[in-house]
Amino acid sequence: MLLAKSTWPEIEAFLQRSRTVVVPVGSNEQHGPTGLLGTDWMCPEIIAHHASAAGGDLLVAPTFAVGMAQHHLGFPGTISLRPSTMIAALRDWTLSLAAHGFERIYYLNGHGGNVATLEAAFSEVYSEASYGGRPRGFSLRLRNWWDLPGVLRLCSRLFPEGHGSHATPSEVAVTQFGYPDAIKSATYAPRIAPTGPIREAADFRTRYPDGRMGSDPAQASPEKGREIVELASKALLDEVAGFAAEPMLTG
Ligand code: NI
């Protein structure tokens, strides 16, 4: 069930049977010469929508599609929120859902650069409850899609070398499965991109001239993407069911 394709009476009825919602969260940033700018929000969205369509009663909120990507701003098309802006937006997003009665909000993340900011945003929201404000008695969860049980093992079996950490063949494969009309090709030189630290945008572009980090995305295919999405969406359904069943300790 997608929140965006539902009406308010349908969400009101949903809240009578569940207090759990999944929010895909990602980034709009360069992903090398062939990776789509939307890769990091598309991947968690594709997995969450696939899980929702597969069955159960999984509610998926609109995707939080722009994240903390300052280091990619040296490449055209990247859009970034600075950490403080993203924390403020995530706080309002979370409190909006909590105001309706959602007590377990599960963020499925697609961008490593978002992790520190998401955790800081969770601390901001929890702080308000701790200082006596509203709301209290709810739980936030952060999961990177590649950390869902079994997914990293599958990705390293599919791509034993040249997986890397940015514009990876696994994330490119997931977008090729989700958007087969937008598959791109290029000649990569070197075949496997360099690795190193992440600092500011000009430094990033100098170190990683085509935008990839440690990866060889030419290994991606829609079929491999389908394998990843099918495994990840099953794991997501299991994990969200466990999250929804956790007892609330506050009254
Ligand atoms: Ni990515």
Question: Keywords for this structure?
Answer:
3 strands, Rossmann fold, 8 helices, 251 residues, binds nickel (II) ion
What does this protein structure show overall?
The chain has 251 residues and is mainly α. The chain has a single domain (3-241), classed as Rossmann fold (3-Layer(aba) Sandwich). It is 43% helix and 7% strand. It has helices at 8-17, 39-54, 83-99, 115-130, 151-158, 169-178, 201-207, 222-245, and strands at 20-25, 104-109, 139-144. Strands 1-2-3 form a three-stranded parallel β-sheet, with helices on both faces.
Proportion of beta-strand residues: 5-15%
SSE order, one letter for each helix or strand = HEHHEHEHHHH
| Strand order, sheet with most strands | 1-2-3
What Rg is obtained from the alpha carbons, in whole angstroms? 18 Å
> Under the CATH scheme, which class?
Alpha Beta
Fraction of residues in helices?
Answer: 40-55%
Short synopsis of the structure:
This protein is mainly alpha-helical and 251 residues long. It has 8 helices and 3 strands. It starts with 7 loop residues before the first helix and ends in a 6-residue tail after the last helix.
